[in-house]
Amino acid sequence: MQIDQDRINQLSDAIEKHRHHYYNGDLKISAQEDYAPISDEEFDALCEELEALDPEAPALTAIGAEVSSEWPKVKHTIFAGSLTKVKTPQELAKWVTANFDKTNSIFWSEKMDGLTILLTYKNGELISAASRGSGTVGDELLPNVKKMRGVKTKLNEPFTGVIRGEIVMRKTAYKKHFSDYTNERNAASGISRRYDGTGSEHLDVFCYQVVSGKTFDSEVFQFQYLEQLGFQTPGHGASATEKRVEWITEVWSKYQSGKRLSLDYDIDGLVIRVNDLGSQAKLGIKHNRPVGATAFKFTSSGANSIVKDIVWQTGSSGRITPVLEIEPVKIAGAMIARVSLYNYGYIEDFKLDIGATVRIIRSGDVIPVCEAVVKTTNTVAKRPSACPACGGRVEMAGEFLMCQNASSCHAQIEGKLLGWIAKIDVKEWGDKLINRLVESKLCLTIPDLYRLTVEELSEVDRMGEKSAKKCLENLDAQLKDMTLDKFLGSLSIPLVGRTTIRLLMSAGYDTLNKIIKMTENDLAAIKGMGSEKIKALLDGLKANEKMINELIGLGVEPMAKKKDTVTKTGTSKVVGQHICITGKTSIKREALAKLIENSGGFFDKAVNAGTHYLCMVKSDSETIKAQKARAMGVAIIDETELMSLIEGA
């Protein structure tokens, strides 16, 4: 199967950009600017597509994004995650069958299309209002949130705890005050983070969960309590009918067929939950999402448009992608003028050409997709005979049109350089700088980055000596932390990310030399290494052999682990071992994780194919981690045994 590396890179870049902008919150978001934030579920749609193409892409392993605005930071008492989703009654039925027993009633609520906010109260007084941020750390937006409608700064009882809600902008407020923004959600995102608080009085907060401070038997009682305190809540309902799926589908259909549009705020689906909170809690958490709740999404929005042109773009892997330029249409609050078709096969399958009328939808209300040809021209667009980026020779490779001029095609060179910079996390190096370096032929390969001098860099578009020095210092700083998994996982080898390299390291292949010498049989013996991934790794190492040697010659020295994690005695038995923990340990989990990593091991947040040990506090634990470890045959140890391994006893 041909690997769609261009799409992988495109999705990874989009996810990292949205993670930064969405969790940090830009302050200048309007219809006149290029960037518009997306909802949690739209973000999930990008992740879902990337996971289908490359389950180990580094962009998927990151959670949230470090907050970088000037607002004070708040550490959440819970992980502020999102929901899994279903899109059809059939998918809903499957989820219900897996998670409901005969006694469970079902609960639904409107899924607000806004921004998560965590309200903290002490003795009934609002003392904090934190954005979702990274999921663990958010921005303290208290001054602005106090101005929003639906927020209670003083409760009618001495409640101490955390309440979760959603910041939204009503459609009426948007039309009256903020129509210069792309849509209501974008307006809410920008206005809620204004440092002067202007406009926050036009925002609303709807609350739907008591995170801590009080417990309830059911979702129904929880919503009743929130309303009793004076909060606005999303529309909701519950039923004990055995025909749960039919009942929820009927509610969902009414919203989709018209009720959704009649609301004064945007929703993009319904949240479906096990009503009994005890049963819901027992179902646990998976991938930072509750198992006992899901989002029943509305069908993607769409519109018809006419193809004005078909342009071709060359990506970092040499793949040439057709892009439709269409008459601009507004779909789900966004103007769409360009739609990627991913490969030439789409042109042939759809029998597409300039002048055709096409049906465009936003998959998951985020990704523009050509769903069908409504009216054809009875002609098919011809593919280019040369690379649009460099004029080089092109050939079909399976369903993809590929540029064969890898060594001098600017599009491929820029893609590889940008991929390296992004994956090793070097600051100050942007797209424009890389573009100028390639155009000036100062950098045509990754090793060229490490050959740059301050003088050369400072002359690039009048950058200046100070900025040039800062760029090179940031690049060199990463050499101190160039672990083996970061080094090989950043070479843009298809299907091979850091997780794959860590898997090899945990199997004893913990040096570059050992990995380079691995055979197909060696790789096949490692649990978690499939045939496609093995081929991709071997082909990738061979293709990058010259570059790897050049990087090493320039001082890039990949280490098995960070230099500061080597133990003093060197006797620890956790070296190279992956260890996960479940239950409340006597030593704080963060401290244990640091001990494991400082002893040469790896701390896993979840049990996976590469996990060697699960430290389980209670031997009869039934947590998701415990169940998965038993099923996978992972060795189970207690805290005392873990400390013995760390100490080398």
Structural class: alpha+beta
- End-to-end distance: 48 Å
Number of helices: 25
Uncertain segments: 23-37, 61-68, 563-570
Compute the CA-based radius of gyration: 26 Å
**Main sheet properties:** 7 strands, antiparallel
Helical percentage: 25-40%
Concise overview:
This protein is of the alpha+beta class.
Explain the overall architecture.
This protein has 649 residues and is α+β, with helices and mostly antiparallel strands. It has 25 helices and 24 strands. Helix 4 (89-99) packs across helix 9 (244-262) and helix 12 crosses helix 13. The longest helix has 20 residues, at 5-24. The chain is globular. The two termini are 48 Å apart. The model is unreliable at 23-37, 61-68 and 563-570 (pLDDT under 50).
Topology:
Layout (H helix, E strand, L loop, with lengths): L4 H20 L15 H14 L4 H4 L11 E3 L8 E3 L2 H11 L6 E7 L2 E8 L2 E7 L5 E3 L2 H4 L15 E9 L1 H7 L6 H9 L10 E10 L6 H10 L7 E4 L4 H19 L4 E8 L2 H7 L1 E2 L2 E2 L2 E5 L4 E13 L4 E13 L2 E7 L3 H7 L6 E7 L3 E9 L18 E4 L2 E4 L6 H14 L7 H9 L6 H4 L4 H5 L6 H13 L6 H6 L8 H9 L5 H5 L3 H5 L6 H13 L1 H9 L24 E5 L6 H10 L3 E3 L8 E4 L7 H9 L2 E3 L1 H9 L2
Parallel strand pairs: 2-13, 21-22, 21-23, 23-24
Antiparallel strand pairs: 1-6, 3-9, 3-10, 4-5, 4-7, 7-8, 10-13, 11-12, 14-15, 14-17, 15-16, 15-20, 17-18, 19-20
Helix pairs in contact: 1-2, 4-9, 12-13
